Amino acid sequence: MVSLSAKPLTLEDFLQQPETQPASEFIKGEIIQKPMPQGKHSRLQLKLGSFINEMLEPSQLGMAFPELRCTFAGYAIVPDISVIAWDRIPVDEDGTIQNLIPFCPDWMIEILSPDQNPMKLVKKILIGLAHGCQMGWVVDPEERVVFAYPAGQQPTVHEDPQEVVPTPAFAQGIQLTIATLFGWMQVQAGESHKSNAG
């Protein structure tokens, strides 16, 4: 992440500024621009968000949103994937989701990009956990490992291919293994990937 502002601002000042691409976040008085997603990051973000929605939406348990800005307690963060429990999704009078999300998501997922400082992502997850988030994930595509941060508990490390990664209580029906998660990056058969082609 690249710091764009050395002078502390207020959240209100930050929200008045034009949006950037990639998105910028406001953390502890500092404007920090997210890195541009690369191949593995982009693929995992798309597939993981879609998978979560396929598992949660039909039962009205929750909904996943990519690059959703959430503002709370003087912060403005944009997790790679924000998952919000169904009964907390804010809606307008016509039943459509509101544009402004004035709270921390229930489940924050961050995907580590090359040359990105993982401690920056952990810091953002810890901020979320201190403000109502139930679970945070840091997904490392290069090492094929997921660090899970459950609220009020010690973080856990998940790298065994057959291991199921823990999820927050409202999403307990999701059974996602490390092998499935990182298998989504595969395009062609490699040394560790069996092709179904005859």
Features:
alpha+beta; three-stranded antiparallel beta sheet; 11 strands
Looking at the structure, what is the overall shape? globular
Mean pLDDT: 90
- State the major sheet: 6 strands, mixed
Radius of gyration: 17 Å
Number of helices, counting only DSSP H or I runs of 4 residues or more:
4
Strand order of the largest sheet: 4-7-8-9-10-11
- Stretches where pLDDT is under 50 for at least 5 consecutive residues are 193-198
Estimate the helix proportion, in percent. Answer: 10-25%
Q: Would you count the extended β strands for me? A: 11
Distance between the termini: 44 Å
Helix/strand order: EHEEHEEEEEHEEEH
What portion of the residues fall into strands of 2 or more residues? 15-25%
Based on helices, strands and strand pairing, what is the structural class? alpha+beta
Give an overview of the whole structure.
There is one protein chain. It is built from 4 helices and 11 strands, in the order βαββαβββββαβββα. Strand 9 and strand 10 form a beta hairpin. Residues 193-198 have low confidence and may be disordered. The longest helix is centred in the first third of the chain and has 18 residues, at 39-56. With 198 residues, the chain is of the alpha+beta class. It has a 6-stranded mixed sheet, sandwiched between helices.
